[in-house]
Amino acid sequence: MKRNSKKVIKNKDLLALETNFRQISNKNGIRVCLVYPNTYKVGMSSLGFQALYGLINDLPDISCERAFLPEQFRAGMTKQGIVKSRDSETGKSFETNTELINFDIIAFSISFENDYVNLVSLLQDAGIPLRSSDRNTF
Hints:
The chain is an alpha/beta fold. It is 30% helix and 13% strand. It has a three-stranded parallel sheet with strand order 2-1-3, covered by helices on one side.
């Protein structure tokens, strides 16, 4: 019996392949993470997501990173549609591997209704309470 031995591509490998990668230039300003609750391939094929990422990074005193659902995360879905994942890249930014909870702003770009399930799973894996009343207020 032959096993499917797909190579797992890490964020750093995907970043090396990007032609328009933006270095994080403003580490002291407002830190934003733009999350696409699906895989890298799906998120990067969204022109709206790419445009929003560029617009946010063009603002002064703001640096924007991205976060996606790792391929392994989707592969781990059970028959009931419940995702169980503890992937090291889940709930972290794509560029610097920073945990989502450490950003000043977490923004979401959702193109498909089916990604709402992924959004909930990403928040849970990032340790961010689902209810706003359970989060810190300023």
